[in-house]
Specification:
6 helices, 4-stranded mixed sheet, alpha/beta, 242 residues, 3 domains, Zincin-like
Amino acid sequence: MANSKETHTVLTSDGAQDYILERKKVKNINLRVKPDCTVYVSAPDGVTVREIESFIRSKSRYIRRATEYFRTRPQTEKAEMKYISGEKIKLLGTDVELKIVQDFKEYTERDGSRLFIHVKDKDDAERRKKLYNAWLEEICREIFTEVMHDVHEKFGEYSLPFPQLKLRTMTSRWGSCHPMKKIITLNRRLIEAPRHCIEQVVTHEFCHFVHPDHSKDFYALLQRMYPEWRYSKAVLESTVVL
């Protein structure tokens, strides 16, 4: 059956909220706010509109923050990165400024609040981008692996094998896991958030190795392993809008 899209309106604590509902072959209700401030929801066929709208109401704070972000951020932020001196990126919740340096040797290094990209030809945009992305991949893998080791220790009683890390750039999820294959996939954009936000996502995925669904037992385990998960999740959703 083809996916169907419908426009609905739900009354939330912030007033009437329009949203687009699409029925898809997914396990859970998913919600995201698009850059044009459209609220998009996907849900499986078996979930009622009443359940969906209850979920939307529970996300009203996130929706408000996301729409405020998209409405107030400068237009230049919507453009793709140019990888030029003075451009800023987010790293673990703080601003880092790019500095392009012409050099006979090509490499990337961070010094406090600045990231230096040494490149033979400063005018070669593709080369600047390639060097930056190589650095980003390395720093994501380094920090995410470090966090995964810290979280893995907390699950010692379950004798879980240390999973393989995969990196992706996703537009609607922070992470996912495949318990059977022992794989955790994390969104590269997590690197923009404070470290405790990354820990919350990693802990969430590790809990799925014990409880694959989002049952009461899953949330009880998440609460025990990371009592501040709600706070970190809220910080993440207000810091990095997908």
